[in-house]
Amino acid sequence: MNTNANTNANIKEAHIKGTVVAVCVSHARGTKKDEVGGRARLVEGYGIEGDAHGGNWHRQVSLLSQEKVTEFNQRGGGAGNGDFGENVVVAGIDLRTLPVGTRLRVNDALLEVTQIGKECHRHCQIFDRVGDCIMPREGIFAKVLSGGSVGKGDAIEIV
After folding, report:
1. For the chain, what is the domain count?
2. CA–CA distance from 119 to each of 40, 123, 124 (Å)?
3. Which CATH number do you get for residue 49?
4. Core-most of 60, 78, 113, 118, by most CB within 10 Å?
C-alpha cells in the first residue's frame, strides 16, 4: 500500500485552503527576503520573478506556515516575514505535512511540492541572531508548473 498516495488523496478530499500572508524575494542567496509591495509574478519553470533562488531546479519557491513562525516568535524568535529566506508565508495550512507531489493553486498559478525541509550547510542570518531556524524543519519547496500572480491576501488551496 502506498501511504504517500493515500495521504495525498486524503488531503485532496479535505479541500484545504489557506491564505497568503506575505510574498518575499531577495536579490542574493543566503540572506533574508524582503516583502514585495503589491503582487509578484510566478514564472513557469523558474520561480518568483526577481528572486535569487529562481531557476531551472526543484527549489524554485519556498513556503512556510505562518503558524510555525508565530510559534517560533512565542519562544522569543522575533522573526518577520522573509527572515527565514521564505518566499511565501501561508496561514491555514500546515505545509510541513504535505507530501512531495502535492499541488497548490494560487490564482492562475500552479505549484508542485518537491521537497520538505532542507539541510543547512551554513547557518542563516536568523540562526546567527537567535540560535535556531525553523526553515530546515518546517519549510517546503515547490516548482512552478504554470505561472501567474501572487500577493498578500490571496487564497491558496490544495488541488
Report:
1. 1
2. 27, 10, 12
3. 2.40.33.20
4. 60
